[in-house]
Amino acid sequence: MNKAPLVSIGIPFYNSDSYLKFAINSVIMQTYSNWELFLLNDGSTDNSVNIASSFEQEDARITLINDTRNKGLPARLNQLSELANGQYYCRMDADDIMHPKRIEVQVNHLLENPKIDLLGTKVIAIDNENKIIGLRKGLTKKKYTLNHVAHSGWCAHPTIIGKTSWFKDNKYDVSLKRSQDYDLWIRTVIKSNFINLENPYLYYREASTPTLKKYCKATLYKLKIFYKNKRILGQWTSFALSIKSMLKVLVYIFYWLLGQTNGLIKKRSVSLNPDQLYIHQKILKKIITL
């Protein structure tokens, strides 16, 4: 494994002291050992920096960048890719948890398929108490087109690993505080090769505090993305996607009025069978109690 390529992992964090320890534990527990981890503080005011610092002191592969300014996620994502020294760069959020074999499986697939630029995986959704909700819905395809990405997306953002050079050449729009990944995929999919693995290798924390304000704000950024990319999407597609997003807001408001927004989150996933549930619960417990 010592001759395996270096993988740079970037975790930006902002007031994430409830979950950051679990995210870092899951990196340390990877079966793939040739990695470097950058923990980038985005102006946290809680105990996150102390948690990150304690891990930096224990493992030479971990580096904390402590910035007291709050620049926002897209700016930090661009910063992390510039810091990366590895052949591959791995996305990770501070509230998610990696499957122990995530890096090993994804790196092996990339080495066997060098034409792939970005590689995602399916995810298992978890709640705020680290309880499994289910396997997140979504179809995997051998080749993702602009139509696939624009209408259905292609993977969960924090599952992505890819060529570091790709991330350095393709930056996130720092003006988009939300949905910056969606915008990046629209701008790059035509010239890139995106692949999504059929098996889940990330425990993805669903919206920890779903609110009407957050949902509406995310929709406004989506509308901005459709407008700024109308030449790529085509005016009709841009208009149709805008209408679709606004209709989704109406549906969300309906569920919000009924106090059933958590029901919408659960609809995104399908239940695991008992054997699968047992295996993944065992993995999560080991990471959380490390």
Layout of helices and strands:
Elements: E1 7-13, H1 20-28, E2 35-42, H2 48-58, E3 62-67, H3 73-83, E4 88-91, E5 97-98, H4 102-112, E6 118-126, E7 132-136, H5 146-152, E8 161-163, H6 164-169, H7 180-188, E9 194-205, H8 212-228, H9 230-233, H10 235-257, H11 261-267, E10 269-270, H12 274-288
Parallel strand pairs: 1-2, 1-4, 2-3, 6-9
Antiparallel strand pairs: 4-8, 5-9, 6-7, 6-8, 7-10
Describe the 3D structure:
InterPro entries: Glyco_trans_2-like, Nucleotide-diphossugar_trans. It comes from Flagellimonas maritima. This is Chondroitin synthase. It holds the Pfam family Glycos_transf_2. The chain has helices spanning 20-28, 48-58, 73-83, 102-112, 146-152, 164-169, 180-188, 212-228, 230-233, 235-257, 261-267, 274-288; strands at residues 7-13, 35-42, 62-67, 88-91, 97-98, 118-126, 132-136, 161-163, 194-205, 269-270. With 290 residues, the protein is α/β, with parallel strands linked by helices. The protein folds into two domains: 7-206 and 268-288, Alpha-Beta Complex (Spore Coat Polysaccharide Biosynthesis Protein SpsA, Chain A); 212-265. Helix 8 (212-228) runs antiparallel to helix 10. The two termini are 23 Å apart. The mean pLDDT is 93.
